Amino acid sequence: MASGNHYVLGYRQAEQERLQRQAEELGHESARLFDEIGIPEGARVLEIGCGPRGCLDLLSARVGASGRVVGVEISADAVALAQTFLTERGLQNVEVIAGDARSTGLPEGSFDLVTSRLILVTIPQPEQIIAEAVALARTGGVVAFHEADRAAAMCDPPSQAWDTAEKLFMAVAEKNGNDFHLGRKLPRLLREAGLMDVRVNPIIHIESVGNPRRSLSVDFLDNMRERILALHLVPEGELVELRKALVRHLDNPDTVVFHGPYIQAWGRKPA
Q1: Residue span of the structural domain in which 62 resides
Q2: Does residue 45 lie within any of the structural domains?
Q3: For the CA atoms of 255, 234, 122, 131, what is the dihedral angle to 10 degrees?
Q4: What average pLDDT does this structure show over 30-56?
Q5: Tens of pLDDT, residues 241-267
Q6: Other C-beta atoms within 10 Å of 236: how many?
Q7: Cα separation of 179 and 170, whole Å?
Q8: Residue 100 placed within a domain
Q9: Is the pLDDT of residue 1 over 50?
Q10: Residue 187: other Cβ atoms inside 10 A
Q11: What is the pTM of this model?
């Protein structure tokens, strides 16, 4: 992830736990992406911003014993959790290194696939990470991102708490330099970075009762709490009541929750 504290969702333990759950929740979508790209056995793959788990296990299975997977992550806590995960799973063809996604220090042109999931939307100046990814891919290699756009983050019946939380998210994102509508721009950004044959998969989530991702807006509100208060967007007491109202609305089984679109986009580095 980016250097400094620019990752808009922060690095608290609850966020690391959410990212570990997310790896399970989105694993089938990432698996389909990797299978559509086609990762040959023996490939060398880089995951940027892998966090405490990311897609490391999925990539490990595809490159096989003769391949190599490298994960780059700036959070020391996430690196430690990822290393524990690798040890527990016995993934000997994977290593995780501490590094800045914008300047990894890895040799250019050395990876068959460079990939990342839900990183660009959470940090400022995502074009810099795309440029680094393209530089690290070999000629003919693939660069693939799985990103979000909050255009379809919505619920029914309508909720004032939901709408207020969304406005707070957007205010924090603007102040932090994030683009929460990056997903729609991703194919263009990849083309502008020099990739060819750019392809796109759009995904919409409908979060049913019992799905942990149904409460994603509550998780985000908790993660951004300190930033919201520091920016004086709402008083602390009002924020507490907002969270209670949002939880009540999401706990109602009659509430329908949508998230997305999520955009998977990938392209090939030309000669």
Answers
A1: 13-149+177-205+259-268
A2: yes
A3: 140
A4: 97
A5: 999 999 999 999 999 999 999 999 999
A6: 10
A7: 9
A8: yes
A9: no
A10: 18
A11: 0.93
The yes-or-no verdict on residue 35 having pLDDT over 50 is yes
Pairing of strands 44-48, 111-117: parallel
Q: Nearest 5 degrees, angle CA 101-CA 37-CA 2?
A: 10
CB 40 within 8 A of CB 15: no
| 81, pLDDT greater than 90 | yes
Q: How far is CA 156 from CA 163, 209, 220, 259, in A?
A: 11, 13, 19, 12
pLDDT (average), residues 111-134? 95
Provide the β-strand partners of residue 264. Answer: 146, 201
Assigned domain for 32 exists? yes
Examine residue 38 and state whether it is found in any structural domain, yes or no. yes
In the block, tokens 């990762």 appear at 39
Q: Give the CATH number of the domain where residue 59 resides.
A: 3.40.50.150
What single-letter amino acid sits at 87?
Answer: T
Q: Is 226 exposed, middle or buried (0-12, 13-18, 19+ CB in 10 A)?
A: exposed
Is the CB of residue 223 less than 8 Å from the CB of residue 9? yes
DSSP string computed for 12-53: -HHHHHHHHHHHHHTHHHHHHHHHHH---TT-EEEEET-TTS
Task: Assign 3 a pLDDT band (cuts: 50, 70, 90).
Answer: very low
User: What is residue 13's predicted lDDT score, i.e. its pLDDT?
Assistant: 79
Indicate the number of domains in the chain: 1
Cβ neighbors of 93 (< 8 A, separation 6 or more) are: 60, 63, 64, 65, 67, 68, 69
